[in-house]
Structure formats: structure tokens, C-alpha cells
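User: I need a structural model of 1,2-phenylacetyl-CoA epoxidase subunit A from Streptomyces bathyalis for a docking pre-check later this week. Nothing fancy, just the predicted C-alpha cells so I can convert them on my end. Input:
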Amino acid sequence: MTSVLLGEGAQAAGEPAEPLAAFDRAIAADERIEPRDWMPDDYRSTLVRQMAQHAHSEIIGMQPEANWITRAPSLRRKAILMAKVQDEAGHGLYLYSAAETLGTSRDELLDKLHSGRQKYSSIFNYPTLTWADVGAIGWLVDGAAITNQVPLCRCSYGPYARAMIRICKEESFHQRQGFELLLALSRGTEAQHAMAQDAVDRWWWPSLMMFGPPDDESAHSARSMEWKIKRHSNDELRQRFVDICVPQAEALGLTLPDPELSWNESRGHWDFGPIDWEEFRQVLKGNGPCNEERLRRRREAHENGAWVRDAAAAYAAKNAAPGRGRVREQDLTETAVSA
Ligand code: BYC
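Assistant: Understood. Predicted C-alpha cells for 1,2-phenylacetyl-CoA epoxidase subunit A:
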């Protein structure tokens, strides 16, 4: 957007007509809104809500997969899984940084996560019971994430859109490793095939819930689509994901656990059975199988990491202290003289 830079006072006073018109024109013209541009308060708070929830999902999402790092069946699989879990931490950091450009701090967002005032994705409240779950998460959960997130690369808010470009590239690797892992199991022994099928049976429906409630119950979709934060509705993306997965399941030699899946010639899409929205609501309320454990471990990790944050802050303060640069120059001179 051609910058509409106003003083803080103008923004605090409400939404003056002229900058609002400039904002609307920028959205209509598909221009990016940047941190220093004027934006409506609701636009800002919607972004903070979505980006924070997204960032929280990335770091909570490390837990179910990390559960299998010590038990990966080979060094190769262990190295891949470690890299993937590390990538998720990185995604969380890009997103917290992007959210900070909206005037909120990472500490504030983490505090809201830890106190249950902000959500993270429902999907991470399910347990990883077998090694095949690592494959099912990669194929289905990362697959759903990519389907949802590729359109976010065109989100109207610049820092979020740019963070998503890098995240999506990494997510593509994650999805492929999951597919490859499941393929190896599916083509393995009878027991391995059964393990892969069981994982897909358990992760399929929760993956469909990742896209959020049906459109007619989605509180934020209409507004977010007007603002071009979201480019497609929850149901549109869910349908796209189902259409992608059906032929992939066939290639894997696995069955999707939905007897109502059938090709609808007139719609040009796969029809699928009803989703258990009561289960989704319960998970969001905190009653999923792992909600309590995920939050408890997150809080513990945060408390255990306090000394690292303190040390990093002390180091930064020491380096920023006045005269610090001069001392260094002097040190260098002395070293040079004595050498
Ligand atoms: N889980 O009006 P709606 C990943 C909430 S990370 C929990 O449709 P919106 C990955 C929603 O927040 C996956 N809550 O909302 C990481 C709202 O509640 P509030 C995360 C959900 O925002 C590591 C209410 O329901 N991806 O993939 O327009 C390893 C009404 O919903 C969920 C993102 O965050 C849910 N599934 O649309 C592997 C992507 N769905 O806030 C993989 C970015 C809805 O009013 N986010 N709710 O209390 C989005 O695209 C959108 O926020 C959503 C929801 C499509 C998720």
C-alpha cells in the first residue's frame, strides 16, 4: 500500500474517513497492508487473533511428533523427524515476529496461550499412539495445513503473507515425508500395513476439522474474506483437501474411513460423510484427549526455559551498554600492541 502514515493520535481517535478510504482502496486493489500503514482496529485484532493462534499451533504441534523422536525406527527417520520438529519451532518464531509488527509482544501472546485465553489448533489435542501416526500427521495434518496456508501467502497483511511463503515451502517437505513414511509402512508387512491404516482411521476426521467450523457457523470468515486475510471459506478449503486426498489414499493403498465418500459428477467433487462437530466443540472447550497435557507441558517448557531468556536478555543488555563499543576497540588496540 502507498503508505498512509498517520500519527498515533489519529489512530487512537477512531477510524477517520480518509485513511479508512485509503485502506479500503488498497484492499480492493489487492495491495499489501504494511505495519506502518493505517488499519482499522478490527483488522488489526483479527490478524493478531489468527496469527497468534497459528503461531501457538506450530509450537504446540511440536509435542505429538517429538513424542516419537527417541523411538524412530532408524537413524535416517530420527534425523528427518528432528529436522521437522525444529522447523515447526521456526514457523512459530516467524509468526510471533510477524504478529509483533502489529504492536503486540511475544510475551503477551505466550501469556495468553498459557492462561487459555488464546486457542491453538484442535488437531494437536489428539495422541500419537504409534510410529505410523508420524506419517499420518505428515500426510494429513501437514497436507491440510498446506491447503489452508497456501492462500495465506496472498493475505492482505504483508508480514503474514511473507512468513507464509517460507512456511509453505517447508510444509511441502513435511507432507512428502509423511506420505513416504506411510507408503513404506503400507507396502511393508501385514502388521505395518495395519498400523498405517489404523493411524489414517484416527487422523482423518480430526484433519477435516482443522479447517474450522462449517461456513454458516464461522464467526469470522465473512469479514476476514472481505479484508482478504482469508481468500477461501472453511468449507471450500475442506472440500479441496478431500479432493486431493482421495487419489493419494489410493496411491498409498490405504482406505479413508468414510463409507459415504463418493464422486459427485455434477459437482465435480468428492462427497463426504458428516463431520462430528460436537467432538470439535468439545476439543475446543478443552475436553479433547490431550488438551490438559499439551498445555501443562508447554507451561513447563516455558518455565524451564526462563534461565535461557534471562541469559539472552542479560547478554543483549551488556552489549548495548554505553561505551561497550569503545572498550572493545581499546581491547583490540591493546591486543595488537602486545602482539
Ligand atoms: N482449532 O470463525 P472461524 C499446522 C476457532 S498449524 C481450534 O471459522 P477463522 C501445523 C476460531 O479461532 C495449524 N480453533 O475462525 C503445525 C474461532 O474462535 P475465536 C493451524 C479453531 O479464524 C505444526 C472459532 O473457532 N493453522 O498446521 O476465520 C505441525 C470460529 O472459527 C479451529 C492455522 O492457524 C481449529 N481447527 O478460521 C504440523 C492457519 N477452527 O478465535 C502442522 C491460520 C476454528 O473466535 N488460521 N477455530 O475464539 C486460519 O486459517 C483460520 O484461523 C482458521 C479458522 C481456518 C483455522
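Before docking, keep this in mind: Residues 49-50, 53-54, 57-58, 61, 88, 119, 121-122, 141-142, 145, 148-149, 209-213, 218-221, 224, 230, 234, 284 surround benzoyl coenzyme A (CB under 6 Å).
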